[in-house]
C-alpha cells in the first residue's frame, strides 16, 4: 500500500524545484514530466488575449534570474536558490535603489520570521522580492541593486487534459493545478496524486464512467477550460473533485459543492466517515480554489474537494515552509486511498432491484454460511438489509448510508446476489 | 432615530383617552385623528346586521356616563375618570341594588389589587363595572345606585384602510386594531406605530410592492374586511403583519403564520435574529389576535406578528396598568425600526442571476479594495458569497440566511454588482 | 378493562400446550380453537410443493412421541412432557447411540442452564433434542437410545384468514403467526390478542375500513399469503401491523415499516407517545418477523409492529422460560388497549375542511362553555386549534401531532364541530 505513497512522493520531489506560474516554461516542464507518467495526456496551449467568459488569457511570464545585491555588493537574495524569492509575475527590473524604496517591494512575515512568503501580482504590473523576516531585519541602510530578468510577452497559457473513455458518456471529473512554484502540499501533492489516480483509472477494467482529468493553472485555467468545454461538462459530469493539499499527514478535510448534496458530497462524506478517524467539514462559504469556478451559479457542477489540511488552514501555507518535509509518503498514500475509495464508490453506485417479491430462500442457494462466526453473521445481516432496499430506486451509496456499513463491504455481497439471480441492476 | 419614537409616543398619548369599542363614536374619533396624520386614509362604515361569513355586524354601542353611588350617595366609581370602569357593551342600567346583587356585576382582580380589569360582553347582553380589588374590599353592605347611560342601537361599524400603490399589484399587508379603550400597549401602540409605518411607505421611492394597511376592530373588523376583500387579498398579498403590543421596552416576540414558512416568517425571523439581542419565538398555537382570521384555514394568508411583549404575557395586559407609563419612546422606536427593516427586506428581496459563467474579474472593475482592512475583506467575502448564489432561483433573504449576514448589509453590495453589470434581477 | 386481559390470557393458556410448527396437526388444532372464538374465520390448506415466489411449501411434519433413554434405560428426555424437547422438523429416528455421537444432536444453553432452547431445522434434514444445560452436564458415558416418532410427508400447510368488510374497500391488515410450540410471549400472545382485536372489529359499527386478518406460520406463511393475494393487498391495504410478543408486562417496543413514515408508523408512534410511559424505538434494520416479507422491496406494504418486549430482546426468548408466567393479564391488556387506540385512530383519521372562512362564531352555537374550568378551557383551545388545521389537506392524526394532544381527545370535539355544521369531512 505505502508503495504508491512512495511513488507519489518521488514524483512530488521531481516537480518540486520547477518555477511554475499561471503561464510559462515551468508549466510546460511540469506537464512534460507528467506526460512521461501518462503518455495519453494531451497538452494544450491557448494564446494571450483569448477571451474566456469575463476574463482574458494574460501575457506569458518567464524568468531567468533575480537577485538583490546589498550595499557591499554581496548577493543576499537569489531566485536561483529559491524561486519564491521573486514575486510571481514581477516585471523586469534592473536598478539601484535605497533601502527605504526597496522596502516597498519586499514581502516578509513578522510572525513567521524563518519563512519566505509566496506572493504574486498577476493582473497589476509590479515587481517584488519575498524574504524571511529575519533576513529583512538585518538589512542596513544604503544603496541596493535589484535585478529581475523576467519577460512578460504575448505567448500562451499551457494546460493538460486526459480523457479516459468508459462504457457510458457520463463523466467523473478530476481537476488539479500546476501554477505554484516550489511548495509541497500546495501544490506538488495535487498533480502528483492525480497522476497516480489517472494510472489507476486507466488500468481499471470495465469502466462504467468516462473520466475527464485536467491539470490547469488555478482560476484562469479552470475558467479557460470551462469556457471551452462547458456544454459537454454540464451534460456529462455526474461527480468530481478538485484535488489539492493532499500530501500532509494530518486530519482530512472536506469542502462540499455548492448544493452540498451532490453525488460527490454524498460519496466523499461516506468515505471520510468510514475510512478516517475524523475529518473537518468545511462550509462551501469557505471555498478558495477551483470549485469557485466549477460551482459558480451558472456553471454549478457537482464538484467537491477532499483534502488533508485545507489550504489556508496550516501555518506553512503559501510559504517556503510548505516544502518536501511538510508532505510525506504516508500523507500522500492516505489521501490516495481515500480518493480511490471514493472513485470506486462512484463506479459501483448502481441501483438494484430484487428479482422476486419477498425474501429469497437463501438456504437452497447455500448463501447461509454454515459457520456462525460474528463476521459471517454480519454478512448475512448486511445481505438481508441490502436486499431490503433493492427496490429499483435506492442507489448503493444510499443503502450503505441507511445500513451504516462502508460501501466497500457491500461489493462482494452484491456480487454474490447478482451471481445468484437474486437482484439485478436497475439504473435509470 | 429616537425622534420617531417620540412622535409615535405623542400620537399614543393623543388617542389614549378615547373610549373605543368595536363600534361607536370612540372609533370614529380615533380614526379622524389618524386621518390628520395620513390624509389619504379612507374611513368606511358598515351597517349593523351586515352578514360577514359566519358573523353579523353587531349593534353600535355608545356610552355617555356610568357610575356607582355608595349607600352614602358618594360617587365611588366613575366612567368619566377611567373608561375601563364600565364593562364594554354594557346595556343601559339605572337602579338601586343591594351589595350582594351588585357583586355579580363587579369585576376585579384579587392578585392585582390596584388594577382595574378590562372586561367586555359583546355578544351577550349584560352590564358591569370594573374596579380595583382594593376598592372592592372596602364596599360595605347597603343599597347602591348604579347608572350606565349607554345606547345599543342599529348603527354602523367603522374602520379605515389605506392603499399605497407600487410598481406591481402584489401587496404587503399591515393590520392593526382600534377597539380597546384607554390602554397603552394593547392598544394605542399598534395604530400609532402603523400610522408612522404608513408615512414611511408613502414617502418610499420606487415602491416595488403595493401596501394595504387597515385599522379595524379586532376579530369582527378583520372578519368583515376579509369578507369584503378576500379575493384581491388572496391574489395579491405576499406578506404581512398584524401589528399589536409594540410599545413596551422589553424583549421582542414573534408569532408565526399558520405554515410558519411564509415570506413574512422568513423575513421577521431574519430581522429579529440580527437586529435584536434575543426574542421569544411563540407557536402559531399561541395566536390570539387577528391572525386567527388571516390564517384561518380557508383564508390562509401569510400574516405573522412581530411584537415587543406578546398580549397575555405581561401582568398589566388588559388592565388599567397597561397605561402610558408601560409604553415608551424607546420601546416604540425599537419596534418601528424592526418593522422598517422587515418591510425594507421584503421590498429588496429580489432574485438575482449572474451575467457570466464563473467568477467575474473584480480587479479590472476596481471592486477589489486596495486597503485590506477587516471590513473591506468582509465586503469582498460577502460579495463573492452573494455572487455564488445569484443563480436565478435563490432570493436575497435566503442568501442572507445562507451566508449568515443581515440582509441590510447586502443592499450596497448588490447595488455595486448591478452597477458593474455583474448580476441582474431575475424575479419570476 | 382488565376483563379482556383475562380473556386473552385464558385463550393463551388454551393454545399453549399444543405442539405447533409451520405445518401439521398442531396448527389445525390451534386454528380450530380460534374459530370457536371467531366463527367467520376461514381455514385454508395448501399442498406441499406449491410454489410461492422463490419458495415451495415444505412437507408436512407431525410428531407423536420422542424421548431419550439413558444407559440405565430411564427416560430422561420426553417430548410428551415438553414439546420443546424435540427439534422442530426432526426426521424419525430410532437407534442406540454413544454419548459422544448423541452430543452432536443435543442443544442446550450454557448461559441459561435451566432453559430448554427452541430449535428447528425446517429446510435441512436433521434430528435433535433440546435439553437444559444442567441436565446435559449430568449425562454419563454409555449407550443411549433415541426415539423420535415423527412423519415428514407430502401434505398441507394450514392457515386462516378473516375478512371483515367496511364501507370502503380500503383495508387495515393484521397478521400474526401460529407456528411455535409451547411458548407464551412468542407466540401464544400474538394469535390470542389478534383474536380479541378481531372480535372488537366485528362489533365495530359503521366500519369505514375493511379488515384483513391472518393467522399464518411465520415466513413461509406470509410469503404464501402474499403470493396468493398480492394484488388486492397492494391495492387496498392502507395500514397494518404484524402482531407478536404482546403478552409480557414490560415496556413497549416499536418496529417501523421500511419507509418509516407510513400511516401505520405515524399512528403507532402517536399512540405509544401518548398512551405509554416510554417505549423502545427500533430501526427497520432490526426487523425479524413477517414484516421482512410485507416490507420486502417489491411488496412494500405499510406494515409495522407494536410489541411489548421485542423478540430477541429478552433472555427467555425462544426457550422454555418464555412460558405462561412470562406473560400476564396486565401485559396482554395493555397491548390490547394500545392496538385498539391505534385501530380507532386509523378509523377516525379523516381530513376535515372548515365550512366558512374565518373562525366561526362559537357563542351563538353555545360552544363556548359557561364554566371556565381548566378542562373546558382546554377543550375550547383544542377546538380552535383543530379548526385552524381543518384545511382540506391535514388529516386528524397530523392535527393531533401538531397540537400535541392524543387523537382520542379530539373525537368528541370533531363530532361537535360536525354536528354544528362548522366542519365537513373532506377525504380525497
Structure overview:
- The mean pLDDT of chain A is 96.
- With 428 residues, the first copy, chain A, is α/β, with parallel strands linked by helices.
- In chain A, 33% of the residues lie in helices and 23% in strands.
- Chain A is elongated and about 90 Å long.
- Chain A has 3 domains: 2-58 and 156-347, Aminopeptidase (3-Layer(aba) Sandwich), CATH 3.40.630; 65-152, Domain of unknown function DUF2172 (Glucose Oxidase, domain 1), CATH 3.50.30; 351-425, Arc Repressor Mutant, subunit A.
- At the A-C interface, helix 10 of A face helix 6 of C.
Counting structural domains of chain A, the number is 3
CATH arch. level architecture of the largest domain in chain A: 3-Layer(aba) Sandwich
The coarse silhouette of chain A is elongated
Helix share of residues of chain A?
25-40%
- Mean pLDDT across the residues of chain A is 96
Q: What structural category characterises the helix and strand content of chain A?
A: alpha/beta
The main β sheet of chain A shows up as: 8 strands, mixed
**Greatest interface:** A-B, 24 and 20 residues
What radius of gyration of chain A results from the CA coordinates? 25 Å
Q: What is the straight-line distance between the termini of chain A?
A: 36 Å
Query: So what's the CATH class of the largest domain in chain A?
Result: Alpha Beta
Low-confidence stretches of chain A: none
Task: Tell me how many strands of chain A there are.
Answer: 19
By CATH, the topology of the largest domain in chain A is Aminopeptidase
Strand order, main sheet of chain A: write it out.
1-10-12-11-13-16-14-15
Alpha plus pi helix count of chain A: 12
Oligomeric form = homotrimer
What fraction strand of chain A?
15-25%
Question: CATH-wise, what's the superfamily of the largest domain in chain A?
Answer: Zn peptidases
Amino acid at each position: 500500500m505505502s508503495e504508491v505513497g512512495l511513488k507519489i512522493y518521488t514524483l512530488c520531489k521531481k516537480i518540486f524545484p520547477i518555477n511554475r506560474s499561471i503561464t510559462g516554461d515551468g508549466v510546460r516542464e511540469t506537464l512534460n514530466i507528467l506526460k512521461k507518467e501518462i503518455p495519453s495526456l494531451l497538452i494544450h496551449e491557448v494564446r494571450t488575449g483569448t477571451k474566456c467568459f469575463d476574463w482574458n488569457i494574460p501575457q506569458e511570464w518567464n524568468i531567468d534570474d533575480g537577485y538583490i545585491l546589498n550595499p557591499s555588493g554581496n548577493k543576499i537574495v537569489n531566485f536561483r536558490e529559491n524561486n519564491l524569492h521573486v514575486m510571481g509575475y514581477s516585471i523586469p527590473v534592473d536598478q539601484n535603489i535605497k533601502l527605504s524604496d526597496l522596502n516597498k517591494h519586499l514581502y516578509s512575515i513578522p510572525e513567521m520570521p524563518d519563512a519566505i512568503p509566496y506572493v504574486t501580482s498577476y493582473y497589476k504590473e509590479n515587481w517584488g522580492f519575498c524574504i524571511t523576516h529575519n533576513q529583512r531585519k538585518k538589512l542596513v541602510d544604503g544603496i541596493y541593486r535589484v535585478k529581475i530578468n523576467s519577460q512578460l510577452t504575448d505567448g500562451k497559457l499551457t494546460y493538460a487534459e486526459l480523457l479516459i473513455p468508459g462504457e457510458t458518456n457520463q463523466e467523473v471529473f478530476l481537476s488539479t493545478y500546476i501554477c505554484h512554484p516550489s511548495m509541497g502540499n500546495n501544490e506538488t501533492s495535487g498533480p502528483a496524486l492525480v497522476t497516480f489516480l489517472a494510472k489507476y483509472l486507466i488500468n481499471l477494467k470495465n469502466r462504467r464512467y468516462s473520466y475527464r482529468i485536467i491539470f490547469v493553472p488555478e482560476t484562469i485555467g479552470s475558467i479557460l477550460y470551462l469556457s471551452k468545454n462547458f456544454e459537454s461538462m454540464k451534460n456529462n459530469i455526474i461527480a468530481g473533485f478538485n484535488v489539492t493539499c493532499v500530501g500532509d499527514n494530518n486530519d482530512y478535510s472536506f469542502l462540499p459543492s455548492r448544493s452540498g448534496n451532490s453525488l460527490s458530497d454524498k460519496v466523499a462524506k461516506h468515505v471520510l466517515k468510514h475510512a478516517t478517524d475524523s475529518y473537518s467539514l468545511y462550509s462551501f462559504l469557505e471555498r478558495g480554489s477551483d470549485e469557485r469556478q466549477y460551482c459558480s451559479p451558472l456553471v454549478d457542477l457537482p464538484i467537491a474537494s477532499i483534502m488533508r489540511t485545507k489550504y489556508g488552514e496550516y501555518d506553512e501555507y503559501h510559504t517556503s515552509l510548505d516544502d518536501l518535509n511538510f508532505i510525506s509518503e504516508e500523507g500522500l498514500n492516505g489521501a490516495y486511498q481515500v480518493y480511490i475509495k471514493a472513485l470506486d464508490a462512484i463506479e459501483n453506485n448502481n441501483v438494484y432491484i430484487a428479482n422476486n417479491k419477498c425474501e429469497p430462500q437463501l438456504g437452497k442457494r447455500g448463501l447461509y454460511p454454515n459457520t456462525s462466526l460474528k463476521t459471517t453473521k454480519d454478512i448475512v445481516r448486511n445481505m438481508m438489509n441490502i436486499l431490503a432496499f433493492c427496490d429499483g430506486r435506492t442507489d448503493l451509496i444510499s443503502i450503505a448510508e441507511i445500513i451504516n456499513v462502508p460501501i466497500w463491504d457491500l461489493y462482494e455481497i452484491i456480487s454474490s446476489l447478482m451471481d445468484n439471480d437474486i437482484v439485478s441492476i436497475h439504473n435509470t
